[in-house]
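Encode chain A's predicted structure.
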Amino acid sequence: MRPVHRATLRGLGAYIPKKLLTNFDLEKMVDTTDEWIRTRTGIETRYIAEKGQSASDLGVEACRQALENAKLKASEVELIIVATITPDMLFPSTACYIQNKLGAKCGAFDMAAACSGFPYALAVGQGFVESGMYQTVLVVGTEVLSSFIDWKDRSTCVLFGDGAGAAVVTRSQDDQSGILSSYLGSDGSQAGLLQIPGGGSMNPPSEETIKGGLHFLKMQGSEVFKVAVRTMDAAVREVIKQSGMGVQDIDCLIPHQANLRILQAVAHRLEIPMEKIFINVMRYGNMSSASTIVALYDAVKMGKIKKGDDVVLVAFGGGLTWAANHIRW
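Encoded structure for chain A:
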């Protein structure tokens, strides 16, 4: 079905906190080494929010930059969608905090799709613009994962970092560019592979949940690896098929930056050369919902994407969820 209006990304923004945490720093905290982390994940550094710095604090800075790059004012934003699994509070939404800090006068809500968060939120923003309901939507991915990491667990604490990214989604001025298609998937039967089990209505905060470490991120790494590769491969193939094209037509693939080995395995399955895959996991680690938008921002800033390029964002995360967006730049 042809949309009433095509949606496009008019301006991008990103914000990374200043505190740098290297693999050598982690050597002093847990039983690990720089070599072990690099060879198994590709990660060399990550950035950590300061104490008291929340997801909305990071997100609003990314939003301000995105609006500046789009040459728009906060007053022109009609809707804010925030993807996060590390919200300021259970409620109100982080999106409402960002709306207030920006000075915008619009609707605002959160989405939780873990590492698939930004592609999910972008698909929702795309739908609002394509339907004609809104002309200008601010889509944000922001995370302070450091607040939910067990810094004594070497299997998880080496993987994650904090950060935020944002995109201004507006009506495209032509039919040749913009978001051509989006694809979303999920499998709740495997929710236990990747989760923060404590804090919700299933396991509300208690002395037992705190003592049991249930408020920290839990992950079955080897199983997550296998499902991540399979689902991201399938998501890329499906989203590009919806656009009437083939994998060989992709100019730049922006995958969720979880682990270098996962990215290499996805490239192998898709038969895409590594030169077409943008990678910044070595700098930031896994930033969950912020991962793909920060990678897209960096790719554009570094000149890796030019006008007319076919760009695909793809991600996999807890839920389980997976998603992809095909964008003609």
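The mean pLDDT is 97.
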